[in-house]
Amino acid sequence: MNEPSIASEVLMAMGRVEGRVEQFLNQQARQDERLNNHAERLSVLERGHARILGWAVGVGAAAGALWAAIGLALNHGKIGA
User: Fold this and answer.
1) Of all helices (H) and strands (E), which one includes residue 1?
2) What is the pTM assigned to this prediction?
3) CB proximity list for 45: less than 8 A, separation 6 or greater
4) Which among 9, 11, 47, 78 could disulfide-bond with 73, CB atoms 3.0 to 4.6 Å apart, if both were Cys?
């Protein structure tokens, strides 16, 4: 008569299922946190990338303007001879 009743077996099984669901929810919360951290890090990298591209465009424009000015000066005989 020491055998567990069907009701107690069902309760134990439900407890195991509840534990697994709780474990799954905890893992999901950790994954959500990691995903948010990755999104923040990616955002920082994207802003840095945009800043570098902006500087590159500015330097390229300045170099182009300088090159054009030198070319104009050379064509008009102001530099060299």
Assistant:
1) none
2) 0.52
3) none
4) 78
